[in-house]
Specification:
With about 350 residues, the protein is an alpha+beta fold. Helices cover about 35% and strands about 20% of the residues. The protein has 11 helices and 15 strands. The strands form 3 sheets. The chain has an 8-stranded mixed beta sheet. The structure holds aspartic acid (ASP).
Length: about 350
C-alpha cells in the first residue's frame, strides 16, 4: 500500500516535470524504483557508470555503503579522462588543481570534508580520514594537505598534459571568461558570462548508496569550477549543500553551479523534503525550484527570468527509491540496482532547453 501511494506520487511529479524526460533505455524510472526496494541501490551523476558498477559489487558482498561509494568514486578520481574530478581535473586560474570532497556515513551520523586540497589523488579518502581520525568535519588548503601527508597519502602532480593545455588555452584567451566581477548591481546584465563559464567547467561526481543492511551513505568529489580563483570552494565539500545523508530518511547530492547551491543549501533541503513524504524526484525538483526563486541578480538570469546556469540533484531514500532533477532539461544520472552494468536514466527538469 505504502509503495502504491509512493508510486502514484512519483507519477504525479514526473507528469509535472515533463513526460519527455521520462523514459530511457529498457527501464522507466518507476519500474526501476519498484525493482529496487529492499535491495542495495547505488546512484550517481552521469559520469558515475563505472563508479556505480564498482560500488554495487561491494554492496553485493555486504560491504558498508560508504566503503562502496568511496571505492566507486576513487575510479573517477584516478581517471585522467574525467576533467572534472581528481587526476586530470581542470585547474584553478593559476594552473593548479584544487580538489573538494565530502563523505557522509548514515549509520554513525558522521561526515568529513576537504576543500582546496592540492596534490592528492583521492580527496574522498582524505575526507573519510577527516571523519574517522579527527574531531573536525572540514579541513581546507594547506591544513588539509598536511593532514593527508600525516596519514601517508602521497603527493603527486594532478595536472595532465590535456588539462594543462586546456588551461593554457583559457589563459591565452582569458577575459571575459574569468570569475572576477567589476562593481555591479542587481540589474546589471552581461557580466560574468555564467552560462559560458558553466559549459567550461561542468563536472563532479556525487554517489549515494543504500547497502544490504539498509544503511545510507554518500560522497561528492570534484576539481570544482575550472579556472576558478585560487581558494574558491564550491558546494561539493559542504555538508548540506553538495551532500547530505540522514540514515532515517535518505541521501542527496548535487552537481552544477556550486555558488547557487551554497546559497540554498539544497542537499539538506532534498532530504528534508523526503522526510516530509516527497518522492526523491519531487524533492529534487523542489530544491531546483528553491534555487530558481532565490536567483535575483539579472546577470544570472536569461531574458525570460530563468537562471542562466544549471544545478542537478540526485536522491535516494531509505526504501531504495531514487530520483534526480535539474533546472534545465538534458540531464541524466547513473543507477545500479544489482546489475553487472549500470544504466543512465533521464533526470526530471523544470525548464526545457532550447533545441540548437
Ligand atoms: N558543483 C561543483 C562546484 O561548484 C561543480 C560541478 O558540479 O560542476 O564546484
Amino acid at each position: 500500500m505504502q509503495n502504491k501511494i509512493k508510486r502514484r506520487t512519483f507519477l504525479r511529479s514526473t507528469a509535472s516535470a515533463g513526460v519527455g524526460a521520462l523514459l530511457t533505455g529498457k527501464l522507466s524510472r518507476q519500474d526501476a524504483v519498484a525493482a529496487s526496494v529492499g535491495k542495495p541501490v547505488v546512484i550517481a551523476s552521469a559520469n558515475g557508470l563505472e563508479a556505480t558498477a564498482r560500488a554495487m559489487e561491494l554492496l553485493q558482498q555486504g560491504k558498508d555503503a560508504l566503503d562502496a561509494v568511496i571505492a566507486g568514486v576513487s575510479l573517477v578520481e584516478a581517471d585522467p579522462k574525467d576533467n572534472s574530478v581528481g587526476y586530470g581535473g581542470l585547474p584553478n586560474e593559476e594552473g593548479v588543481v584544487e580538489l573538494d570532497a565530502s563523505v557522509m556515513h548514515g549509520p554513525t551520523g558522521r561526515g568529513g570534508c576537504v576543500a582546496a586540497l592540492r596534490n592528492i589523488l583521492h580527496p574522498s579518502q582524505v575526507a573519510r580520514r577527516v571523519m574517522e581520525r579527527t574531531d573536525h568535519v572540514l579541513l581546507v588548503g594547506e591544513g588539509a594537505l598536511r593532514f593527508a601527508r600525516a596519514h601517508g597519502f602521497k603527493e603527486q602532480e594532478l595536472l595532465t598534459e590535456e588539462s594543462r593545455a586546456a588551461w593554457l588555452k583559457w589563459k591565452e584567451n582569458l577575459s571575459p571568461q574569468d570569475d572576477w566581477l567589476p562593481p555591479h548591481d542587481r540589474d546589471s546584465k552581461g557580466i560574468g558570462k555564467v552560462w559560458e563559464a558553466f559549459r567550461r567547467h561542468y563536472g563532479t561526481i556525487n554517489c549515494n548508496a543504500l547497502d544490504a543492511q539498509g544503511n545510507l551513505s554518500g560522497c561528492t568529489t570534484t576539481s570544482g569550477l575550472a579556472f576558478k580563483i585560487p581558494g574558491r570552494v564550491g558546494d561539493s565539500p559542504i555538508l548540506g549543500a553538495g551532500l547530505y545523508v540522514d540514515n532515517d530518511v535518505g541521501a542527496a547530492g548535487s552537481t552544477g553551479r556550486g555558488e547557487a547551491n551554497l546559497l540554498a543549501c539544497s542537499s539538506v533541503l532534498v532530504v528534508e523534503f523526503m522526510r516530509q513524504g516527497k518522492s526523491p524526484e519531487e524533492a529534487c525538483l523542489l530544491a531546483c525550484r528553491r534555487i530558481v526563486n532565490q536567483t535575483k541578480m539579472k546577470r544570472l538570469l536569461d531574458d525570460d527570468g530563468r537562471p542562466n546556469f544549471d544545478v542537478r540533484f540526485y536522491a535516494l531514500n531509505k526504501r531504495g527509491e531514487f530520483g534526480s532533477a535539474s533546472i534545465w532539461s538534458g540531464g541524466r544520472f547513473a543507477v545500479n540496482t544489482g546489475e553487472a552494468q549500470s544504466r543512465l536514466v533521464d533526470s526530471a527538469y523544470l525548464f526545457k532547453r532550447a533545441e540548437k
